[in-house]
Write a structure and sequence with these properties.
The complex is a heterodimer of chains A (600) and B (240). Chain A is mainly α. Chain A has 14 helices and two strands; from the N terminus they run H-H-H-H-H-H-E-E-H-H-H-H-H-H-H-H. The chains are: A mainly alpha (600), B mainly alpha (240). The structure holds protoporphyrin IX containing FE and copper (II) ion.
Chain lengths: 600, 240
């Protein structure tokens, strides 16, 4: 049944590393506030990320209100609109998705899934969260400083990002850059922990090729982040110099209102290169953990091993590697040499190959599976559909000739929301429905969950499908209002109203979701242990939710990969990773042949 | 195959050689890099990330040097000192480079004595390394002062492209910060070595894990990295 057949378990390597002695917190403060326990840090990360994400959600409502009903809301000025899109985009991409996937799920799941007691350096891990929180606070502060937050767009392109015409020029941009730098410092402390924990702190029997794909996804994404964030860091530092010290790293000679500015000789395109050298891998920083988690959700809830485990691992690694050589497909309109465009279009299309392999494997995992349409499964399926959708428009935009007319239109907005907005968010929802019982000991409410799922899933399409069309007819992106434009039919305004109504309804469904999270914490149905009957280690802890140190006295020993579902001949339809071969119960009638997977 | 618990780098475990060994390690359980303690792995990965930071800085410097329309000041003239009536180009930088590279030597010796558990020699060599580092930073401060007196500012200078000053302060400043942090670390670790914290396995600072002499090597890795980066800065900024 399995396509990965490691040697039999007759031989198990002895422990190479002494069991670690953890820091034992005694007071409430050291247990839950200045906590060094990865699980607590994970929840701190997740709560902070979701809180700031809700701010970004509210910002998107305001943007949509303005686009749907221009001339109605006097408090949204053109400048305010630019500030809204900037903060919305930056928060969603960095402070919500990156922090939630890596800081949240990474912290919670990595030690549990690889059978470690905690991250390798819990103290540094704790600092990571507090620096992240500081970054968020600095970002929030920029709403309140004179001039407000920056309106440079989440790409922060110079020269306009630091020129007087851009809102937030006085303080907003400074706080934004400072906050980004802090985020990167904080992330680095956490990221080093995640990588080293996966590489060096696995339990006995847990080989790399037995790790659940969730860990693989988060692991590779963290490596990408450690190598991509430096470019953003450097860009932010140099722009800070340009803004505060009047250097001209990114600033060419500029004449503003007839006056020549003090700048000259810098290269704005340099910033674009730095930004996108970070920006494209960033897409995969939020996509790869999603890929990994979805693979596990599908496998558990279809009671079937993931199709092509090895291929899935290699696809993650290859996508990660390739993501560093495609960045300039965001710069086709920057006037770069057409030969570069040719190179980057080619590399972009090549990435589609491993990505398509993953999609096929997900579908093949479902094929003749015993599909349980639980909430995590619904979200996982919704992810596949949405991701394919966004991926296909990505192929359009990857080609220079198609991208040039579509660039900076609503088509691009629709594309990236599908592929890196909605799709990863759907995975996050699925993952929360899946792991909430583990974290809290209670199930989330089903009725509210189904309402949340259907409204979000259908609503996302009502929002973004029409946007593709708007892009085709030329509605530009980042425009406060399009007014009466010759080439844009009046019906576009009606469509915009429709999108806005849909967006507000979807937003409301998220409020229900948050309510569900809080309500179920107290009133939710008590979960049995391992409610999804999953094989991976996080469900096999002695207590649920797992206690400090995760494993009680003895670390678990791993005998098999994470995907032994519906193994022929076994009495149970799942074999936990730490179930020894001689303990596998054999189904009636199979006594003679035994269990094939017992030897994996 | 793997044997006893090996958190310290005492004896190597016997494993197949060459490529086979690499594959065997990676496909084994527990640790991908056998005999590599957690802290050391972490430092290596951090340095990889830091390499990207310095590469971005240096590439950006080269880009602006190329994009600016004003001629670039001649580094060998700017960085020259008049000693005994004679104008010697790059003399200070040469001395600084020499000092920093020598400090790598003393650091390497400290690591060796650390594993030999010779506390006194280790601590002294680390202090010497720190002293070299501190004098490097001191000379850098002298150079900054001199240039600032001559009118070099991040936004301009008397001789040509303003990007000269911008890149100079940015890159040497960032590197100098690295050296200073290294000096502080060296002092802190030297003190702990001297006190015998690593023999008594006292809990380390910056971590709640027990410390041991690996920390000397980890500090050394960082220190060698900072030196190596300097070689690139020297070649690309001063010699070009
Ligand atoms: C209810 C959900 C959401 C709605 C209604 C929404 C709506 C919008 C709107 C109207 C814009 C501005 C378009 C323009 O004028 O250019 C925008 C921009 C953007 N959104 Fe969203 N969005 C949502 C969720 C997300 C998520 C989850 C992400 C995470 C990746 C995201 C990332 C971005 C980015 C990066 C921009 C570009 C900002 C810029 O142009 O600088 N959005 N969104
Ligand atoms: Cu891209």
């Amino acid at each position: 049944m399995t396509d990965v057949t490691p040697e039999t378990t007759s031989y198990l390597a002895p422990a190479e590393v002494e069991d670690v002695e953890l820091y034992h917190p005694k007071s409430f403060v050291t247990k839950y506030i200045w906590s060094q326990d990865a699980k607590v840090i994970a929840i701190q990360y997740a709560v902070t990320a979701i809180a700031i994400g809700l701010v970004a959600l509210v910002l998107s409502w305001m943007m949509r209100l303005q686009l749907g009903f221009p001339d109605t809301f006097s408090f949204i000025s053109p400048e305010a609109y630019l500030q809204l899109i900037t903060m919305h985009g930056m928060i969603m991409v960095i402070y919500l998705l990156t922090a939630l996937f890596l800081g949240g799920f990474g912290n919670y799941l990595i030690p549990l899934m690889v059978g470690a007691r905690d991250m390798v350096f819990p103290y540094v891990n704790m600092l990571s969260y507090w620096v992240y929180l500081l970054a968020v606070l600095v970002l929030v502060a920029s709403f309140f400083v004179p001039g407000g937050s920056t309106g440079a767009g989440w790409t922060l392109y110079p020269p306009q990002a630091i020129l007087a015409g851009t809102p937030g020029q006085s303080y907003g941009i400074i706080l934004m850059l400072a906050s980004l730098a802090l985020f990167i410092i904080g992330f680095t402390m956490g990221g080093l922990n995640y990588v080293v924990t996966v590489l060096q702190a696995r339990t006995r029997g847990m080989t790399l090729m037995r790790m659940p794909l969730t860990v693989w996804g988060i692991f590779v994404a963290t490596i990408l982040a450690l190598l991509a964030f430096p470019a953003l860091f450097v860009g932010a530092v140099m722009m800070m110099f340009d803004r505060l010290l009047g250097t001209s790293f990114f600033m060419p000679q500029i004449v503003e209102f007839g006056e020549s500015l003090k700048y000259g000789g810098g290269s704005p395109i340099l910033f674009q290169h730095l930004f996108w050298f970070f920006g494209h891998p960033e897409v995969y920083i939020v996509a790869l953990p999603g890929f990994g988690i979805v693979s596990d959700l599908l496998s558990v809830h279809a009671r079937k091993n993931i199709f092509g485990y090895r291929m899935m691992v290699w696809a993650i690694v290859v996508i990660g590697g390739l993501s560093f050589v495609v960045w300039a497909h965001h710069m086709y309109v920057s006037g770069m040499n057409p030969y570069f465009g040719f190179f980057f279009a080619t590399s972009t299309l090549i990435i589609a190959v491993p990505t398509a392999i993953k999609v096929y494997n997900w579908v093949l995992t479902l094929w003749r599976g015993n599909i349980h349409l639980t909430l995590p499964m619904l979200f996982a399926i919704a992810f596949i559909i949405t991701f394919v959708n966004g991926g296909i428009t990505g192929l359009f935009l990857g080609n220079v000739v198609v991208d040039v007319p579509l660039s900076d239109t609503m088509f691009v907005v629709a594309h990236f929301h599908m592929v890196m907005g909605v799709a990863p968010i759907l995975v996050i929802f699925g993952a929360i429905y899946h792991w909430y019982p583990l974290m809290s000991g209670r199930m989330l409410n089903q009725a509210m969950g189904h309402f949340h799922f259907w409204v979000t899933f259908i609503g996302a399409y009502l929002i973004y499908f029409p946007m593709h069309y708007l892009g085709f007819i030329g509605v530009p992106r980042r425009y406060y209002a399009i007014g009466e434009t010759e080439f844009i039919p009046l019906s576009a305004a009606t469509l915009n109203e429709f999108i806005t109504v849909a967006a507000l309804i979807v937003g409301l469904a998220q409020v229900v979701f948050i309510f569900n999270l809080v309500w179920s914490l107290f009133k939710g149905e008590k979960s049995v242990k391992n409610p999804w009957r999953a094989t991976s280690l996080e469900w096999q802890t002695p207590q649920m939710p797992p206690a400090h140190g995760n494993w009680g006295k003895e670390l678990p020993v791993v005998y098999r990969w994470a995907y032994d579902y519906s193994v022929p001949g076994a009495a149970e339809d799942f074999l936990p990773q730490n179930l020894a071969p001689d303990q596998v119960a054999i189904a009636k009638g199979h006594e003679a042949s035994g269990v094939r997977a017992a030897a994996t | 195959m793997a044997q006893a618990a090996m958190t310290e780098t005492a004896e190597p475990i016997s494993r197949p050689d060459g490529l086979r060994g690499i594959v065997a390690d990676f496909s084994s359980d527990q640790r991908a890099f056998k005999n590599v303690p957690w802290g050391k792995a972490m430092m290596w990965i951090f340095l990889l990330s830091d390499t990207f930071i310095f590469s971005c800085f240096l590439l950006s410097y080269m880009t602006v040097r190329w994009s600016t329309e004003v001629p670039w000041p001649n580094p060998s003239e700017v960085f020259s000192l008049t000693i005994g009536g004679q104008n010697i180009p790059l003399i200070l930088i040469a001395i600084m480079t020499f000092i920093l590279i020598s400090s790598s030597g003393t650091m390497a010796m400290a690591v060796k004595f650390g594993y030999a558990r010779d506390r006194k020699k280790t601590a002294i060599l680390m202090l010497v390394t720190a002293a070299f580092g501190a004098s490097f930073v001191g000379m850098q401060a002298f150079e900054w002062t001199k240039l600032i007196h001559e009118g070099v500012r991040p936004w301009g200078n008397p001789w040509g492209a303003p990007q000269f000053g911008s890149s100079f302060f940015l890159i040497t400043g960032f590197h100098g910060t690295h050296v200073s942090i290294g000096v502080i670390f060296l002092l802190a670790i030297a003190r702990k070595v001297w006190r015998g914290d690593y023999d008594s396995q006292r809990k380390g600072f910056f971590t709640s894990r027990k410390g041991n002499y690996e920390i000397v090597e980890i500090t050394g890795l960082y220190w060698h990295f900072v030196d190596l980066v300097w070689v690139f800065i020297f070649a690309l900024f001063y010699l070009w």
